[in-house]
Amino acid sequence: MVDSIATTSLLGHRPVCGGNLIRDVSAKRKSLNICRFTPAEFLGGRVVVSLPLTKSKQDGFLSCSSIKALAVELTREAYAYREDKLPKKGNSKIDGGFDRKPGLWPPENRADKPSLRNPLLRQERMGCGWLGAIFEWEGVLIEENPDLEKQAWLVLAQEEGKLSPPGFVIKRIEGMKNEQAISEVLCWSRDRTETRRMANRKEEIYQALQGGIYSLMPGSKEFVGVLMHYKIPMALVSTRPRKVIESAMGEVGIVENFSVIVAAEDVHRGKPDPEMFEYAAQLLNFIPERCIVFGNSNLTVEAAHDARMKCVAVASKHPVYELGAADLVVRRLDELSVVDLKNLAAVETSEFGSPEPELEMELEKDDSDTSSVDESFW
């Protein structure tokens, strides 16, 4: 009976009773009421059992030296497991999802990590805190009037004595910074001081025409509230001055929902350059592949894709069929769900580590021998 129990014990040793081992010297059934197992400590996938030392050296019993050797071996295994698995002293950083592996950039940023021993951290990873949302201001969160932008440029051109820009030029400078449009597209001035003066004047004309009245897009506030409920970090980007953006956000009541604001003073170039979105991702402390951009134009889609981000286009100014380059097209923001955002940001690790396959051109073999010339041709 004891031998059968010993063969099924956790460590393959016979059970210990009162510090001595039991021997079955006869075929009679013996009582095991006084038999007690030593306490076991579970460490991960291993079991450490503390065996009491025996002073008996009779034949058939384990000697003191063998038990000591077993104890030393088990202690080494326990401490080796602790050193490998348990966090080291001084490393109190919360795991943010970045595996620092040499030669792999961008790093892995998986939502779930089974090796985490803290269930709360793992539950947080399985939530929504591992992706970020970057919103444009006009046409996405608030109503946009494209005619006001055109009128502001025409008034500025009349004040400065410049030729009025045609419609296709105004459409081209859509989404750019004012300084960038004046110096690179309209070519009104190359002097920085003069360019900055005209850009400020254009913004004053636009604000005067706009009247300081802002109205939220249908479903935008509800969608922002859903993201706040799921603790998804949000950023706001715009080519307007920061003071204008902050006052407008305070008026519509969403200033506390955004942890990051990127305004015209923070970047050098506007769309289609991805600088605004890349800087917002840095401030959110996310890699670009985990960020989702919400815009309403093809310039936004182009800039987001250049920054290696996914883009959701809101068909507020352009029809749906013109925004087919976006990863997802909606008419209202409240048509989206958190599951849709997770599916967009769920990037596989292979996309990060493996490089793009190189295309090899296969040359066709020419069977004709150019060196030999048909004599009958001549």
UniProtKB/TrEMBL annotation:
Spans annotated as Disordered: 91-112, 350-378
GO molecular function: beta-phosphoglucomutase activity; hydrolase activity
UniProt-listed Enzyme Commission number(s): 5.4.2.6
Gene3D superfamilies reported in the protein's UniProt record: HAD superfamily/HAD-like, Putative phosphatase, domain 2
Keywords of this entry: Hydrolase, Isomerase
Enzyme class: isomerase
One GO BP: riboflavin biosynthetic process
Pfam families assigned: HAD_2
InterPro entries documented for this protein: HAD-like_sf, HAD-SF_hydro_IA, HAD_2, HAD_sf, PGP-like_dom2
Extent of Acidic residues compositional bias: 357-369
NCBIfam families assigned: HAD-SF-IA-v3 (TIGR01509)
Protein name (record): Haloacid dehalogenase-like hydrolase
Taxonomic placement: Eukaryota, Viridiplantae, Streptophyta, Embryophyta, Tracheophyta
